Amino acid sequence: MAARVEAASMGGVEIDEEESDERGSMWDLDQKLDQSMDEEAGRLRNMYREKKFSAILLLQLSFQSLGVVYGDLGTSPLYVFYNTFPHGIKDPEDIIGALSLIIYSLTLIPLLKYVFVVCKANDNGQGGTFALYSLLCRHAKVKTIQNQHRTDEELTTYSRTTFHEHSFAAKTKRWLEKHTSRKTALLVLVLVGTCMVIGDGILTPAISVLSAAGGLRVNLPHISNGVVVFVAVVILVSLFSVQHYGTDRVGWLFAPIVFLWFLSIASIGIYNIWKHDTSVLKAFSPVYIYRYFKRGGRDRWTSLGGIMLSITGIEALFADLSHFPVSAVQIAFTVIVFPCLLLAYSGQAAYIRRHPDHVADAFYRSIPGSVYWPMFIIATAAAIVASQATISATFSLVKQALAHGCFPRVKVVHTSRKFLGQIYVPDINWILMILCIAVTAGFKNQSQIGNAYGTAVVIVMLVTTLLMTLIMILVWRCHWVLVLIFTILSLVVECTYFSAMLFKIDQGGWVPLVIAAAFLLIMSVWHYGTLKRYEFEMHSKVSMAWIVGLGPSLGLVRVPGVGLVYTELASGVPHIFSHFITNLPAIHSVVVFVCVKNLPVYTVPEEERFLVKRIGPKNFHMFRCVARYGYRDLHKKDDNFEKRLFESLFLYVRLESMMEGGCSDSDEYSICGSQQQLKDTLGNGNENENLVTFNTFDSIESITPVKRVSHTVTASSQMSGGVDELEFINRCRDAGVVHIMGNTVVRARREARFYKKIAIDYVYAFLRKICREHSAIYNVPQESLLNVGQIFYV
């Protein structure tokens, strides 16, 4: 007879005890209890090790983020005080007031707003204005090009939240979706912010490198300003010339350089506070901000433009967020960046209080003579790293704009095998270099470049605030009171800075406005032309009744081979196909309509990239393949697009042949599924249910889940038709594959207004002429390419 004893205190260990041998059973019980305790202790040790490892990894990522994220913000001490007091210091108390403004500007905007609020609004780790726009596009139908289908929402990366129909978020969503003008206004707002960040990509290298090179004149007074400008230009040309190598090989140097920079400026700051004036620490009291403005004068108000430069780099901070987790960025700022910057500015203020006539070169003159040249080298290296971070952020934003149809097709090169986000855009790189050299050589001083830089940054901040307001309502579903508090506080601070920058428009502040206006014109015209082309395709697509009426031969000679017809339509038959078969007497035996579309997600997993469905009856041998990409995905040269397309097509045909009561001969239904669904269905294993969807020509309807086939006889009978069609498609593929692409020319109507004629007939036509062809992007061999031209008027 057995009795069961439960050791509940140690995780429910169950022990069988024989009543006839109580002593032995108690010994067994003790052994099992000891064993259970050892297992529990081992589990706790493993948990501790995992937590310790996670903490070490987080600290390591925080250290690495210094070089990528905070280089721009960290080099601001090079030029802030000079731009704050360009005409000298009239009252020593103004130094305390300016330092107090710097302290609370760093606290309110980079620390509280960006690091702890805006960075949390990332799109699966992606930052920047277009990342915020993608989040909004997933939660509301605000895209101007409506090419999404509800199957796109089933992607694993297509994350979004839902809200109650009568909530404030739902009302805001309906308000945005109601009029096209509101969608257009939102897109223009995003484009303005993007253009200003591109302007930062020009101005950051100019002011950082020029300020660092300016240290030569402090220890070598006989050197002229022209020599300093020449040195800065040489450094800039070298920096832009090595961009095509990427940062993968030298990126490991960035974090140590910036970390050494922060330690150096903090140490020098402590030294200057101790040696010159410890009373500057009273600037931590906001009372001195009030006294600063109370003394009045326009110069004190316009000095906000210089103080604004202390928070430059926050736009690059958010745009470069994709390389690191948010927690790592937050730790790096709060533990290293923020305290080191406060000590650096306080030390400079203490030195200027003793030597007010040295404000023009406050940073370099405050360095002790024994460490001057090592500090000069570190400052120059830090300025190069800061420039690199902004250039990389510009490349990322251009890639995102390209994916949203808001930028002409340019070449994008993947520079790293390890990190997907490290890219190089040759055309943009050389444009940035030319404009950066022009700004550096044209202005020749930090003051005017600083005014231009501040104008660009404050506009980006305003755009981010407005987008964050919508994010808090639609994505985070915050209470409207919290949204109102965040928006009002942000706008009050940023509009104050913006009002000060208005006084400096004629002193260099016009530069980013001109640069942004030029890029905004290019992006707006390109998007307008892309939108009109898509609308033309939608309105002129061929009806399926006409296709079916032609019969299996389509009224033509079906020659051996496969024709891949590229179109922007994800549903329906494009007008280019009717144009093609009307002018040519033959078409290929197998026709696949290929639609490559970009979705408002950061990436589409490889196994979910392709969607395949049949068009028309089975004996027509016509299919549609939709290839979906996120705004971070790249068309790399080593990607065999054609091979992966055919793999998806073959998997689809196999799945269709295995469907119970399949609809292969139906002219109304076809099957749509991701590559992963197809592999799951075709795999060997137990009888599981896989949700498959039936597609009409332009719609998708869910049906009852279909059981996986496990009986050999049944599978063989169902696969026979599929095998025959697979052999037919393979023979056609061996006969040759032709890529048929439309070369649609857009023209303005005769009665169109003159500005539309200029925009379409000249600007858009020029951009189309110089941009990359689709065949180059998809690596289509020229010998198998066929362009079909057509013209439409807008």
User: What is the C-alpha radius of gyration, as a whole number of Å?
Assistant: 32 Å
Low-confidence stretches: 1-34, 44-53, 660-720
Shape: elongated
What's the mean pLDDT score? 80
The biggest sheet amounts to: 6 strands, mixed
* Helical run tally: 28
User: Portion of residues in helices?
Assistant: 55-70%
Straight-line distance between termini: 93 Å
Range of strand content: 5-15%
Q: In which order are the strands of the major sheet placed?
A: 7-8-6-5-14-15
How many beta-strand runs? 15
Main structural class: alpha/beta
Report on this structure:
It is a single chain. This protein has 794 residues and is α/β, with parallel strands linked by helices. Helices cover 57% and strands 11% of the residues. The chain is built from 28 helices and 15 strands. Strands 7-8-6-5-14-15 form a 6-stranded mixed sheet, with helices on both faces. A hairpin with a 7-residue loop joins strand 7 and strand 8. The N and C termini lie far apart (93 Å). Mean pLDDT is 80; it is low at 1-34, 44-53 and 660-720.
